[in-house]
Amino acid sequence: MSLIRKSSELSIQTNIKMMVYGQAGMGKSTYALSAPKPLLLDFDNGVKRINNAHLRDVDTVQITSWTDIKNVLREDLSTYQTIVVDTIGKMMDYIIDYKCNGGIPNISSWNGINAEFAWFVREISSLNKHIIFVAHRDTRKEGDDTVFIPALREKNYNSIVTELDLLGYIEAKGRIRTITFDPTSRNDGKNTCNLPATMNIPTILDNNGNPTANNTAIMDYVIKPHLARLAAKQEEIAKYNKVIEEIKEQIELITDAESANDFIAQIDNFEHVGSSKVMAAQLVRSKAIALNLKLNSDKKYEPAA
Questions:
Q1: pLDDT tens readout for residues 84-131
Q2: 178-196: per-residue pLDDT in tens?
Q3: Which residues are CB-neighbours of 18 under 8 A, at least 6 positions away?
Q4: Which residues pair with 61 in a beta bridge?
Q5: pTM, whole model, 2 decimals?
Q6: d(CA 20, CA 231)
Q7: Is residue 175 assigned to a domain?
Q8: Which residue, among 253, 216, 274, 221, has the nearest Cα to 81 in the 3D structure?
Q9: 103 is in which domain, residue-wise?
Q10: Same domain for 169 and 263?
Q11: C-alpha closest to that of 216 among 34, 20, 32
């Protein structure tokens, strides 16, 4: 069986791999739990800091070792649409402990450590679930500038960020919290889903800590727009493939210079999508070559001498 696929046959994953980071008290965990039907993997006992109102419909696994993760992934997780890791820094500590048998990692250890992280992400993705990592904030010096980054070991950083679709920095200005996905001179970011560079995070608690709205920010402002864009892209691909098939059917009818010129005269009548007109020109050119035709000075096909 051929491994080559047409654009309409491609398998496009709809699950999102995302990390949010920021200072303590920014509501990172609560924001992460605004993804649909989350299962919380609590690596550093952070669940105690989350408002109970946001945990009402959230199941939690309190992790004590990386073996717990191996066991959890053998369970039936069909109820959940999202896996939330809080925090990824503590999670990497568990992986290091697991891969190094409780010892200190050496240079040769890091490939295995990063591979274990990649395995975890693949396992979650293979279940078609979103994964949201929560991270604390650290800084990196770039000349005289200070850049905010997720608190991760340098040996892990690039390997982890490579796996992500989105990396968002959460901060507050007064009572307004925002998340920034685009990288800037003051924060690292990643935005392969083409979301707005910066978005406000809704306030859903009153002054007494009581909920005023459902916790659905990631669902409403990240996942739904992303899925809508994917659907629009798939629709455009389908339209492109349809018009290309129509063009190919007409090119099959070309048998001589006259029919080639008739096709060119009608080329604008197709409902072109994207580069379909360019493709049509390439296809008719190939057919002309096969029929030993050439273009004359009037840009009309005629038999080659």
A1: 999 899 999 999 999 988 888 888 888 888 899 999 999 998 899 999
A2: 999 999 989 999 998 889 9
A3: 130, 131, 132, 133, 164, 165, 166, 167, 168, 218, 222
A4: 41
A5: 0.78
A6: 25
A7: yes
A8: 216
A9: 7-228
A10: no
A11: 34
